[in-house]
Amino acid sequence: MPLGPPPDKYTGQPASWVLPAGTPLWRVHHKSRSPAGFNEAPAHKYFGGGRFDATADDNYPYLYAASADTTALAETLLRSLPFAPRHKRTLPRKSLSGRRLCRLETTTDLTFLSLLSSTDLAAVKQDDWLIYSEARDYAFTRHWAHWLRDQAAWAQGLVWRTRRDIGEFSAVLFGDRCPPGALQAAGRPGLVLDDAAGARQLNEMLAAYDVRVYPPRTSGARP
């Protein structure tokens, strides 16, 4: 059901998937927010926002995370970055402004509604449109996320296979269903993405994704 409303009458059973305590997750976030801090601001019902954000129709704190550091970077920064025929893709510096990459760890088992496979999607009357559609459809995917929450009061988030780092997963956690402290910052302090050190690290991490980053403007440096 690529683009259409959820069914009025649903008698199926969504698939569940448990993420054990102690599992590492990665997140790109603005430096003004704590590494494990949920986003409390609902997206507009129709415009902007992310795939499974809260809106005024279903207002819940939410946090996106991924199974690997490069996955979090790819999902956040590479979504609209086209390939160039003769050189690497160039990541605009403005997309890095105020951002940080951090490592989190789950402190308790978390149960997700699974969208990881075709059969998981079919269980909720959907296909890969729900997890792979472009931003123009996000108003509709947000509506589906709210419907999925209604069908599975036990779900503490949604999990799916990422489009931009095949083989890895992305997840959105619902702050109103996760216990306090379900996530904690882990390891070294997060990587600041908008300084010279961040540019060097990003160039190492994203080289295999055909991406380059120029350092901040300094004497003789390109912006």
How would you explain this protein's 3D organization?
It contains five helices and eleven strands, in the order βββαβββαααββββαβ. It has helices at residues 69-77, 118-123, 129-132, 138-151, 196-206, and strands at 16-19, 24-30, 62-66, 89-90, 99-106, 110-115, 157-161, 169-174, 183-185, 191-192, 211-212. The radius of gyration is 18 Å and the shape is globular. The strands form three sheets. Strands 1-6-7-8-3 form a five-stranded mixed beta sheet. Strands 2, 5, 9 and 10 form a four-stranded antiparallel beta sheet that branches. It has one domain. The chain is an alpha+beta fold and 223 residues long. It is 20% helix and 22% strand.
Could you outline the blueprint of secondary structure elements for this entry?
Layout: E1 16-19, E2 24-30, E3 62-66, H1 69-77, E4 89-90, E5 99-106, E6 110-115, H2 118-123, H3 129-132, H4 138-151, E7 157-161, E8 169-174, E9 183-185, E10 191-192, H5 196-206, E11 211-212
Parallel strand pairs: 4-11, 6-7
Antiparallel strand pairs: 1-6, 2-5, 3-8, 5-9, 5-10, 7-8
Helix content, binned percent: 10-25%
Mean pLDDT: 94
Strand percentage, roughly?
15-25%
Secondary-structure-derived class:
alpha+beta
Strand order in the sheet with the most strands:
1-6-7-8-3
> In total, how many beta strands?
11
Could you list the spans in which at least 5 consecutive residues all have pLDDT below 50? none
Sheet with the most strands, sense and barrel status? 5 strands, mixed
Helix and strand run: EEEHEEEHHHEEEEHE
